[in-house]
């Protein structure tokens, strides 16, 4: 940590995963440019783990100083480890905040550990800012996201609908700012970048994708229905295989049920040595945008299949209940069940459709700048009160 | 724990303090009478501590079986220990739930540890029921209460206003039941019980109160303004002393800032050996009702000065922001600041006024029965979704 | 857990890894046969993890009842996670012991989490029994093992030398019993079992090993020199490859530095698709004995390359400081440094030498029976005192 | 924390209680004088608690910078909280060490949390120095002390006997240095200081002691026999009362069973309002020496009744098994049982005897200087190995 400047506001970002980083990076860039605040970065949870792409190294390579690294992932394949991870993260983060003494702590989106940041900071009378609140989805993320809203003092929803939901939950209007999602800020400058370099950096067999039509799959465990994921993974694998299209498949997040997915992926890999599916651990947020822009179709249940893809216009197929309820642009086809035949047909339909029109539903590309400005200038205040609408 | 009956629903109550117990005891009594469910009781946090009245012993003496005792209070006088206590409680409770395998977990009201119960259970895909949600107050309790609502699947608000706030926050109507507050269930049968026995059981000098007009003080730290409590405690002590009325003063809850209060109380006690103020650690919920009914005025910032006192009609003076926003009956005078002269005058005014009419604002005395019935018969379901009102 | 019988002694075993299980299983079998004690089994740490062979499932399949599963591994590749894992395990295990109320807790050997069991139990005034104490090795295990001895009340060293070291450390003679190591109890009945079935069960390509001379590698991170393991792993891979012998390579334990090893193994696998090395997650203890008996040479730094192999007479090459100081039979060649040329030459030397004479250094095959008898009949006593030898 | 100087060695002291501070303060003073090392101070456990004298404030008032404050005491009156406190402290301290990056961590003596420091540091490959190892006593402290020795790389025993015990346990001679106990370093300069100022600072009624013969009592819970402490406390109270001598009684340490003692003390105080016993929370280490030097007899089971009193020659009565086995000078009378009549008679005997000759058993007053010199100049090395004596 750089020496503390008494006059400067300290804003601390807690980044717990690769998805967190993608959704906050443009804010960090803007914060770093400013002279009126001190940027603090804490990396925790799966952000520190090799199995999930060592995001902490990417953050450092991007030129940021990481003030604290907080190991808090309790390993296991049952939902109980989400609870234990969150408990441990609260213990650790409260100690970190007592040392870094931030004026504002920023917590990102809705993974289960997110609430650890909000609890540790709010209980210690530190102002909490929350990004991507107010959205509606399935899974435990739905509850976590709204609970974080009620623990936070400053809100940066991505969409008009999310804004209205936050107000409905009783938050004061002056604390809620529609900014768009920072993950879209990179899209315009990165969508058309050279894909081949990226493929060579990450793929064992880049030639299997380069200059070809290819699919992109991100499929995570739904922690409330984690038992069913093995079956769903098999159906998606089968569907993708039957399209005979080369495919990039990103390893899932660390979550209850992840091992069920990993096991299926390994089994598939071992019994299909000549398959056209290549497994990748991680891209940087910018690289991911390029990949997303070039793929003919994104498949799975990642929010990027709704959010980022709305702006690249990438055809998308969202499977299961993990994203159910989320606002979507016209590029998304939703499937409630994972049936290989239907998935295969919808993939073909989407590949044939080609790119959709770009939508500004999740932001206009300036979220980072807007959020940084508010974080640096808003009044510090932790006294909040439920506002009845009636 | 009694042997698990496969056919019976298991409902687990987590009780973390004496206030928790008072607010759930009538539900436990009703649950114990029923043959269609298995009652599980976990006592944690300050419910296990001698300094806070050893509530666990009272629970056992009342005839309940305590299935698990979970030490989780991290000791200290700074807000950071609320965060650490909550983190530790999540770790512990998740292990307990994995062993007790409840179908429903009940979390009570809004103290900071309450959210540990809600997180551990909801993350483990166990249905969470929450009592006393939807109310509006000051302090971190305000945020914790609403965050618990968003993590819970079943709600038992005490008042119509609280019900409407929960609906506003996006909860499904079928999950929200106005039941009244169980803490009021004991009032009718206990209000007129013999006070003298209780005084003899708890007071060093019962004759200093018996058959006399007396005051009752409960003053807790407001964890968001915990630094100011020393001054406020001194003002209240001064005011009470100047009324020259005998007084029962209950030790404060364990909270950040509690030591500041305790220190003032000890200082006062040491330098006022002949004072008419007697300090008491704890009453049982029923005994408390009797004391509350007999006092000429309750002073401080306990919610019982608003909630239970509404039904006994006891004159009440509420000081500071800890309860600000809570629905009140006409028996309460609110003072924003703790000024000894004003407090003294208002005490005299309230003592002279005498009892107010009884109000049903916080319940009609049947909350325990209603809540138990719903817990035992509602459909088990953890799939919840935000309901937009527009 | 079965209902507690007041008259029966309760003995609780905490099993934290596949190695733990192999080293205590014959004791569990003997305990289960007895009617004078109640057997309790707690599985924790890597014993619950898929990545490390899901030992808990093997334990259940072997007919044991697992009373509690305790997730406590904090994931990461730095030594700090060993400390955090141990801290978390103490918190969890103390809660488990308060519920299971054992008379004796058994902790196995010397991995870093072992001390969590010893601390939780001894602090709670529960008698602690420790197996495989008194041995001398390198790595943090050396310190952990002796610290466990000083926290334990009953000792089951495997060798005469270990016995003498425990006495030297000031333990009372009546508390120390040379029993041999339980991991050797399976050797006689399993050494000659059919290997082919086992290979078919675990290997992708069993024919690559069946009826052929093959090598066996177990190489773990040395947590005090964990940075160097990448280099060492590469050297061993190179040496093994150059022998051109088919090889079974077991994935390493979960430890600081494990990721460095895994990364090298994956890299090797990806760039040597036609390699004769096959990677396996886990064998059962008995299956392992059969594999160990059939291999031409065991290579790496697992204690089984010294302990179990002494009784099968399997030629062994031990590399680095992790086992330095351990008592060895004549079958072991020690190499301080990992140099591929030297390793290769020593492998060829050992393969040419063939089986060594069987040694009883680490036990005569009756450790399980002896330990069970003492656990069930020894006097319960936690008052211990350092015995000066001068 | 001051900015880290790359060339300077960093030595980190973890102070967990008032007793810890008294036993390390003279080392801190010497460290602070030196320019060849950077002093780091972490205060944890009861060192942060108001109930135990707020040692952290005394440390700051003494001119030291406290780098980190780590709340880790899990509150409760059962032995389980010692285990949980230790587990939590390991989690917290490992995070602190990863941030402060010390070259050596110093852990003091033998309270249960002491081992948390040793585990966190040694697992993280940081050199651990341990003071007051090798002594023999009763209670769990006996096991903790020796386990810490086996986890440490540098030892500062106070006595020749302790030195020999450490060597016996297999430590290398070059790592063990007889330095005496730092708590004795203050004795010569403070023994004759003015007592009356100190009494006025801490006592409600200083005149009750000033210029009179008085007794000093320190009685802590023995965590292995914590149930019996109520009875023992009553016997000591009775004995002291019957001598009719004015008495200073220090509140006990935070430990399992402390509440039993506190309860008896409060009961006594309430029912003996005119008693000559005055209760005090804390003295500074130097003030304590003055009090100890002036008292006619120290009674209880504190190690200061053996250690510091050996050098002041203060008559001492040690009760119970907590100190049994410790090396003693001729000033100590040991009583196995707490019987009020015997205690009273022995008090009278000791008061009549008056001062004993001063002993150097626990040090010559230069421990601080010796320890600081070794800490700043010894070679950093974590590779340790058991040294067999045969």
Task: For this entry, give a set of tags.
six-stranded parallel sheet, globular, 40% helix, alpha/beta, homotetramer, 12 strands, 15 helices, 390 residues
Protein architecture, described:
4 copies of one chain form a homotetramer. Chain A is of the alpha/beta class and 390 residues long. The first copy, chain A, is 40% helix and 14% strand. Chain A has helices at residues 18-22, 25-33, 55-61, 80-100, 114-123, 139-151, 160-168, 187-190, 195-202, 229-243, 258-271, 285-294, 307-312, 340-353, 367-377, and strands at residues 9-15, 37-44, 68-70, 104-108, 127-131, 154-156, 215-218, 247-250, 277-280, 297-300, 316-319, 332-335. In chain A, the strands form 2 sheets. Chain A has a 6-stranded parallel β-sheet, with helices on both faces. A 6-stranded parallel β-sheet of chain A has the order 9-8-7-10-11-12. In chain A, helix 4 packs across helix 5 (114-123), helix 10 (229-243) packs parallel to helix 11 and helix 10 (229-243) crosses helix 14. The longest helix of chain A is centred in the first third of the chain and has 21 residues, at 80-100. The first copy, chain A, starts with 8 loop residues before the first strand and ends in a 13-residue tail after the last helix. The relative contact order of chain A is 0.14. Chains in contact: A-B, A-C, A-D, B-C, B-D, C-D. Chains A and B meet through helix 4, helix 5, helix 6 and helix 7 of A and helix 4, helix 5, helix 6 and helix 7 of B.
